[in-house]
Amino acid sequence: MSLSNDCEACGFVDEAVGMADAVAALRGFGRRYRAPLTRFLPGEDGEVVLRERPQTGVWSALEYAAHVGEVFRNYDEWVRRSLVEDNPVIDAPTPDEAAEEGRFNEADPVAVADDIAARAEALAVTFEGVAPEHWRRCHVRRGEERSVLFTARRAVHEGNHHLLDIGRGMRAIRQRARDTGS
Question: pLDDT digit string (tens) for 82-98?
């Protein structure tokens, strides 16, 4: 398996994250996501900042956040299956399908923040319980084998990368409001 999570856009380097690093990062995501989902500038409409899409085809801040909670839930399930089944094949909707079906942009922001914290903690506990000799156990997703360690690294990448997406999107919405005087 030669999958890599390296990402030029956010600077993530796959090999730099070990299992202990992943657990620590997961435990920090609840706090890191709560701030942008619950704190706004004086006088701004937080609902608009969170729910408006910065451009066509780009998710809103709330959609990205809800996606992260969903990712953590899915990864927890997939890792658990990988530990008890031999190469289980995982079938799940695409992120866009999940966002639409789950009505991510209609969610309560505080509930989304709570969900991220709870799901990140559950995933961290799952990873803590995996013995090093089982880090290479795999599941198959979209025709590719994905190890437990790969999934841990991917969870950290997803959490970090989407925080950047949220920040960019919120800045774009705030700039649009300044430009239009609303």
Answer: 999 999 999 988 999 99
The per-residue pLDDT for range 51-68, each reduced to its tens digit, is 999 999 999 999 999 999
Give the domain range for residue 78: 17-180
In this structure, are residues 52 and 135 in contact, taking their beta carbons and an 8 Å threshold?
Answer: no
User: Reduced to 3 states, what is the DSSP secondary structure of residue 14?
Assistant: helix
In single-letter form, the type of residue at position 122 comes to A
Closest C-alpha among 157, 159, 123 to residue 33: 159
Calpha distance 156→17 (Å, rounded): 8
Contacts of 71 (CB under 8 A, 6+ apart): 155, 158
CATH number for the domain that contains residue 71: 1.20.120.450
Mention every residue, 6+ apart, whose C-beta is less than 8 A from residue 38.
109, 110, 113
